[in-house]
Amino acid sequence: MEDIVGFDLAKLAYEKGFDLPCREAYDSEYKELNSSIFYNGNQFFEIEDIENALTNSGHTHYLAPTQSQLQMWLSNKYNIIVVAFPHYDADYEIWGQDIIWDTLWSYAIWDAFKFNKDATDFQSYGDALEDGLTEALKIIKTK
């Protein structure tokens, strides 16, 4: 199962215009909602469901895409590429014994195929990608 983005990233994506159907959403109290229990009976949340939830409850709800879905949306709509990749850090004992290799993760962002930003030393692929997606969304100018 793919990781859905966290609440803060879902909110930022909504503010930047993300509008693709998603299996998950968040309500205004950070609670994750699954489309199978949503009132519309549909398999996916649509942007209209989010707008209706605001109208009906008075609270903003947010689509919760998977990380890869948001990654693809950024690529297709804004030509922004976010890639997470591993790098290795060796930790040697003082006498040259017990060499320990740690796998840490990094990300890089290209905006219209020009290098924009990178960061390193995340503990997992998902953490690196989540942070990279957040930084990539910050590049987008809102109307």
- Strands, count: 6
Task: Flag low-confidence runs.
Answer: none
Write down the overall geometry. globular
Distance between the termini: 34 Å
Biggest sheet: strands, sense, closure?
3 strands, antiparallel
Total of helices? 4
Strand order of the largest sheet: 2-1-3
Secondary-structure element order, as H and E?
A: HEEHEHEEEH
State the assembly state of the protein chains.
Answer: single chain
* Average pLDDT number: 80
Q: What value does the Rg take, in angstroms?
A: 18 Å
Question: Beta-sheet strand percentage?
Answer: 25-35%
Helix content: 25-40%
Structural class: alpha+beta
Task: Give an overview of the whole structure.
The protein has helices spanning 7-15, 47-57, 67-78, 125-139, and strands at 24-26, 32-34, 62-64, 80-91, 100-111, 114-122. It is globular and about 50 Å long. The mean pLDDT is 80. A three-stranded antiparallel sheet has the order 2-1-3. Strands 4-5-6 form a three-stranded antiparallel sheet, covered by helices on one side. With 143 residues, it is α+β, with helices and mostly antiparallel strands.
